[in-house]
Amino acid sequence: MSMTDKKSYAKVVQNGVQAVETVNELRAAGYVGDHIYVLAHDQDRTERIADTSNANEIGIKEEGVFDAIANLFRSRGDELRAKIVSLGFTHTEAAFYEKELDLGKVLVIARYTA
Description:
Pfam families: YflT. The protein is an alpha+beta fold and 114 residues long. The chain has one domain. It has six helices and three strands. The longest helix is centred in the N-terminal third of the chain and has 13 residues, at 16-28. The two termini are 17 Å apart.
């Protein structure tokens, strides 16, 4: 993994331990900690992994106020897809990642910022 790719990075991992390892690898590769996110299907699990790995959750800053409010009325699957799209991924990519989250996996995302 190298910053020379200069793009956002996403990786599906099996569990929280692998998510923490991936977050540490991303930091070592030069991604800024403020731009590393974790996402799991269960909100509590997302919070626990974010706290343990010192990563971020996708929030209003990334989604925008409109989408954050809309998420209050969306199903969890729709909410997860909207969060993933808010970080620059396509709807097709978001659908794929959301299906992986349905299976209990964890998504780690790092945004490249110039």
